[in-house]
Amino acid sequence: MNFLELFATVRRRLRYLAGKAAAERDMHDEMRAHLEFEIADRIRNGMSPEEAGRTALVDFGGVERFKEEGRAARGTRLIEDLGQDIHYAARVLRQSPAFTVAGVLTVAIGIAAMTAVFSVVDALLFRPPPIAAPSKVFMVGEVWKDGERSWETSMGLYMYPYEHYLAHRSADSAVFSGLAGFRYTGVSMLAGNEARALSAMMVSANYFQVLGVHSALGRLFSDTTERVGAELPEVVISYGMWQREFGGDSTAIGKLMTVDGHSRVIVGIAPSGFNGTEIGLVTDLWAPVNDGTFAMVGRLRPQFTRDRAAIALSAIGAHIDPVSRKQPIARITLDPIVGPPAMARGAVIGFVGVLFITAALVLLIVVANIAGMFSARAAHRRREIAVRLALGAGRGRLVRQLLTESVGLCLIGGAGGVLLATWLTHLLPAINLPMSARTSLELHSNRVVLGVSFISTLLAGIAVGIAPALQSTRMDLLAGLRGTDSSQPRGIGRSRSTFVIAQLALSLVLLITAGLFTRAVQRAVLVDRGLDTRNVIVATMNVARHGYDDARAREFYAQLMPRLTARPEIAAASRGEFTPLSISHSGGNVPLPDGSHVQTLWALVDTGYLATMRIPMLAGRAFSGSDTPLSTPVAIINETLAKRLGFDRAAIGHQIKLDREFPREIVGIVRDGKYRSLDEAPTAFAFIPVSQSHSDLMTVHVRARTDMPSALAALRAEVAALDRNIALENVGSLSSQLDLYVLPQRAAAWCIGLFGILGLGLAALGIYGVVAYDVAQRTRELGIRLALGATSRDIVQVVVRSSVVAIGVALLIGLPLALATGRLASQFLFGVGMADPLTFAVVPALLGSVALIASYLPARRAARTDPMVSLRTD
Amino acid sequence: MSKQDPRDLLQGTLDLLVLKTLVAGSRHGWSIGKRIQEMSRDVLRVNQGSLYPALYRLEDRGWITSEWGISDEGRRAKFYQLSAAGRKQLVAETREWRAFSGAVNLILDEA
Q1: Which residues from chain A sit within 8 angstroms of residue B61, using beta carbons?
Q2: Average pLDDT of span A414-426
Q3: Would you call B60 and A60 a contact, using CB atoms and an 8 Å cutoff?
Q4: Distance between CA A36 and CA A307 in Å, rounded?
Q5: Please, which of A334, A454, A660, B45 could form a disulfide with A138 given CB 3.0 to 4.6 Å?
Q6: Residues B50-107 pLDDT 10s
Q7: Which residue of B has its CA nearest to A56?
Q8: Could you tell me what percent of chain A has a pLDDT over 70?
Q9: pLDDT exceeds 60 at position A259
Q10: In the predicted model, what is the mean pLDDT of residues A818-847?
């Protein structure tokens, strides 16, 4: 049946249903007309009217039976049944409001968790940026002969010198219809008297053209912009900035704005929601450049698939002049732009995976909980179901009916869950990370997210209903009708305790995972970072962007640093290239005596840096004013590098060659620190005096004497006194910036822990319910035991014994599952073992005690009842 | 709807016969039954009541359409008519039936 026919059939059936009364009358009239024809025919053939009437009716057969067959032939039975089921289910759910409300709320929590997590998954992994045909657009990367990919990375992107970009652009034109370059950077904009930090993208002029993005207003860069760039530099601003700064006024086009001390003319507004190709990064403005480094993004020509393009590109790459790289290109990679940047992909997918599993576990707990509720209720409805079975209702029909109830309940809960999730995701604040670009993740429920929520709701509904439905319709009819079927509650009781075991085991997994994350945060806080982070303010400034050449920049800092240290609010001040633990560091290979080399990171710092950051010297001296461009080039290395060089403490006085540079003399050795992440292995690191090199970008580190706000005010005042154009970027306390590195762990600990407690609560209620039900069923038996002289302790023991078994089974199932989850999450745990003894001892003990208390309460009540009362109840 | 049990064969045959009677023009239920009886020279007698479920099923599938009208005898009756899809179905089912009965005949003749 093709779609059109199906549609026609459905329409016919609906029309039939809509005019059902008319159709019934129709059928009746038609059969009567038939009989009249038949009778007339028989009379014509010589029968008496009476005989004709009688025999015609007999020959026709059962009118009602044929009507029923006729209705079935219309194919509308299923729909009619469904209508009936829904009607009946609504009545049943209305009749027990407490049950319904509890169920709906529980489902709402489960579906809300699923929806919220999936909207994060969707935003991070699946949603393409708003550009034309995103599946044809790829990040382009080189892989060199030695396996390295680039000299520099930024925001998780591999960066290449502008010349590489130009070489690719001409060499790869057979494969790409366009190749653009971009880099993220911070800029300052002068607004009134205040310099404001903005997130910007420096792009090749064909950037928008390659991505297929059209302006909301004005125009975007034309391909020629980079050639005329010098006259009046252009800028495109984001839709958000246009709304914020210009109130969405169309006269913004053509206005001048001062960016990094230079005037730029606003030529266009980027479309709403466009932030470039990297998920989660906010961009305020785009400016065309033709220098510096670029991440490369290309659009494949229509005839190329990703695989074919990669092969073609690698062949082309071999012929691209290797001079500026020193190394030939081995391979060219194409990474899709959907999802996180290639470098961060593993971590993001891992983290999202942990969240997703958590949400799935919560949903499973919810399902187990409600299945338990339905199971218990099925026990109460045994009579009703027995009556309906006895009256000839088909088992399938009854199962369908019971499933309609559970699915209906879940659908209401699911709708509530989606609303709850929408509210929750709006609560998530935009988190600003210490990077030169702002971040924000737009979470909204689109069709994909809603589809996933709907499907999980439906599956939950079926999972919740199927076991109780099958079980309660498979019964001994007579016993069920009499209401004395004593074998039945056991079956239902058993399946209920299965559900409770499932809930306990899953809660255990969640709580242990939360425990592991908490321990990870704890450990991260305790990790020795090799420096004193207390009371330190960091702020980045880029004087080169304000037209400072090297000499002027030196002059600027030569004035600034003494002014800072002279302030009473400031105990010490220094500048360095990077913040500790920032994701951007320079680095490269340092040759070892044996011909191999060691991966080393390095940073430019001034003379006061080691003292300001309180990094302990182990040997030698700190940098001093006597280290000048004219004196011997020097470096200070850390313990690890000293060890790798084979000198240990004796390294002082030896020479070291950092990458392509000239050799430097080692003058000092400092203690190891953490440079890129808290759980990194000991990393080789070197400090280079900024006086013997130069860097555009500098981070000022200020240690406050008493409080940080007044130190920050002093810093701002001194910078503004020297040049009011210069904005401080990424301002913050060092410790709070370092805290951000454990933010995902902290968030995971909170979120998973909350769900775990919720799950444990539900499981405790489940146990309580099962034991209470068990006690109620065994009132007589317990009464007899008491009458025969059992103490109340014996009774408690008898009753609690089965829950102890259930708890034991739950632990046996839950612990291996928790171990497996811990292994999955291990890359985020800062080396907290996945079998962390403390977590694995405390959490099961806690869970076991809560479950025991939940089963002890009803048991104690049973033990306290008067045996005479309990014997009389039957 | 496509369960395979022995009655399906009968129903299928009845469907084919009903469609065939409508080729010449529209008919009402009783005359369809009568016509099948006549055409088969009284060999096939359609159970009168079971004709209607078959008619509704054919209508549900869109092979015939119906409309109330007045019969030659001046009685009000519901008239059935072949649709374009029904004509196509008739051709297909006729071919299938020929192939089927031909095959059965081959086997019987062999013996």
Answers
A1: 9
A2: 86
A3: no
A4: 76
A5: A334
A6: 788 888 888 888 889 888 888 887 888 889 999 998 899 899 889 888 888 888 888 8
A7: B48
A8: 85
A9: yes
A10: 81
Mean pLDDT of chain A: 80
The pLDDT tens digits for A340-351 are 766 667 777 777
Which whole number is the average pLDDT over A20-48? Answer: 83
Q: What average pLDDT does the segment A20-43 reach?
A: 82
Residues of B in contact with A22 (CB under 8 A): none
Residue with tokens 């949400």, as numbered in its chain: A359
Please state, in angstroms and rounded to a whole number, the distance separating the CA atoms of residues A466 and A371: 9
Structure tokens of A673? 């620190």
Give the separation between CA A218 and CA A216, rounded to whole angstroms.
Answer: 7
Flag if B78 and A13 touch (Cβ within 8 Å).
no
Average pLDDT over every residue of A682-711: 84
Say whether residue A32 is in contact with chain B using an 8 A CB cutoff.
no
Q: What is the CA radius of gyration of chain B?
A: 15
pLDDT at A3 over 70: no
Q: Other C-beta atoms within 10 Å of A229: how many?
A: 16
> Residue A390, Cα to own-chain centre: how many angstroms?
52
Contact B62 A69 (CB under 8 A): no
Say which residue the tokens 């190709």 belong to.
A277
Cα A453 from Cα A863, distance rounded (Å)? 45
Instruction: List, for residues A502-551, the tens digit of each pLDDT value.
Output: 888 988 988 888 888 888 888 777 777 778 888 888 888 878 767 788 88
Burial A38-64 (b: 16+ CB within 10 A, else e): bbbebeeeebeeeebbeebeeebeebe
Residue with more model confidence, A302 or A744: A302
Of A8, A37, A69, the CB nearest to B62: A8
| Number of helical (H) and strand (E) elements in chain B, helices listed first | 4, 3
Model confidence, pTM: 0.63
The region that residue A185 occupies, defined by phi over 0 for left and psi between -120 and 50 for alpha, beta otherwise, is: beta
Among the partner residues B49, B53, B75, nearest to A37 by beta-carbon distance:
B75
- Average confidence (pLDDT) over A621-629: 88
Kindly tell me the burial class for residue A816, based on how many C-beta atoms sit within 10 Å of its own C-beta (0-12, 13-18, 19 or more).
Answer: exposed
Element (H, E) at A561: helix A550-566
Beta bridge partners of B70: B76
Tokens of A215: 């302006």
CA atoms within 13 A on the CB side of A83: 8
Are B57 and A34 in contact (CB < 8 Å)? no
Rounded distance between C-alpha atoms, residue A489 and residue A777, angstroms: 8
Q: Which two tokens stand for residue A452?
A: 């996933």
Q: How far apart, in whole angstroms, are the C-alpha atoms of residue A711 and residue A676?
A: 27
> Rounded CA gap, B33 and B35, in Å?
5
Whole-number Cα distances in Å, A131 to A288, A342, A599, A721: 19, 19, 38, 44
Q: If you write DSSP's letter for every residue of A807-836 in order, what string do you get?
A: HHHHHHHHHHHHHHHHHHHGGGTTT--TT-
Token duo for residue A542? 């880029």
pLDDT at A823: 82
How many residues are there in chain A? 874
* Contact status, residue A373 vs residue A494, Cβ threshold 8 Å: no
Chain B residues whose CB is inside 8 A of the A6 CB are none
Scan for tokens 């004013």, then name that residue.
A625
pLDDT bucket at A98, cuts 50 / 70 / 90: confident
Residue A516: partners with Cβ closer than 8 Å, 6 or more residues away: A822, A825, A829, A832, A834, A836, A839
pLDDT computed for residue A874 by the predictor: 47
Residue of A nearest to B72 (CA): A37
pLDDT confidence of residue A213: 92
Q: Enumerate residues 6+ apart whose C-beta is below 8 A from B92.
A: none
The pairing of strands A234-237 and A262-269 is: parallel
- Range A717-744 average pLDDT: 77
What is the length of chain B? Answer: 111
